[in-house]
Amino acid sequence: MPQNRRMETLRHLTPLDRLLAGAQNALETVLGRPVAERPNPGQPQPDVVMDEAGRRHAAGLMRINHVGEVCAQALYVGQATVARDPATRAQLLHAAQEETDHLAWCADRLAELDSRPSLLNPFWYGGSFAIGALAGLRGDGWNLGFVVETERQVEAHLDEHLEDLPAEDLRSRAILTQMKMDEARHADQAEAAGARTLPFPIPGVMSMASKVMKTVAYRI
Ligand SMILES: [Fe+2]
Ligand SMILES: [Fe+2]
């Protein structure tokens, strides 16, 4: 069954079934090859050959973005596993589905850049799933608050990467531009669905955790 349909059916399952479906999502995200539903926005752009330093830098940035998408999937699936309200759970699973496109596009670009995803993806997935499940246990307003904060932070960091990418890397640029628009929409939708603002110090802790992730994932 395609990942998206399986995520959809997650709504009707028992808690144990949900946990097992979450585990399956983990394996597919970390070890599988997710398939995008939308065409890769980088493909219409020319694949300009960069010098070695430029290629390595672009690959480091795209590896960070790939890890970000692994974390987003894990966070949302973790939250959905414990969400009480079916509408919130459906929204979380829908957000996770849309991140699958981003995950697949980043993986494609990493391969084009002769590079690879982070070797620590199982660790990133496990940590984010745990954070998502803990947030979800606090209630559905918190769940949506986490979505808003995550998406806003990702949006800001995509802006930094758009500045930082080698100018000739048009394919990565097109992918990140589309991702940035999607993340802004995810945040708006979660806000409209009743997200609460996360209290101090949670946004700062999330930002620090993502700085650690970015520093490590650039290389490993
Ligand atoms: Fe994303
Ligand atoms: Fe998103």
Automatic annotation (TrEMBL):
Membrane topology value: Peripheral membrane protein
InterPro entries cross-referenced by the UniProt entry: COQ7_proteobact, Ferritin-like, Ferritin-like_SF, Ubq_synth_Coq7
Protein's pathway: Cofactor biosynthesis; ubiquinone biosynthesis
Top-level division of the source organism's lineage: Bacteria
Signal peptide segment: none
Its EC number(s): 1.14.99.60
Coarse class of the protein's main subcellular location: membrane
Residues binding Fe cation 2, per UniProt: 99, 151, 183, 186
Cellular compartment(s): Cell membrane
Binding locations of Fe cation 1: 69, 99, 102, 183
Enzyme class, UniProt record, top EC level: oxidoreductase
Keyword terms of this UniProt record: Cell membrane, Iron, Membrane, Metal-binding, Monooxygenase, Oxidoreductase, Ubiquinone, Ubiquinone biosynthesis
Gene3D superfamilies: 1.20.1260.10
Function: Catalyzes the hydroxylation of 2-nonaprenyl-3-methyl-6-methoxy-1,4-benzoquinol during ubiquinone biosynthesis.
PANTHER family documented for this protein: 5-DEMETHOXYUBIQUINONE HYDROXYLASE, MITOCHONDRIAL, COENZYME Q10 BIOSYNTHESIS PROTEIN 7
Family indicated by similarity: Belongs to the COQ7 family.
Name of the protein: 3-demethoxyubiquinol 3-hydroxylase
Lineage of source species: Bacteria, Pseudomonadati, Pseudomonadota, Gammaproteobacteria, Lysobacterales
Name of the encoding gene: coq7
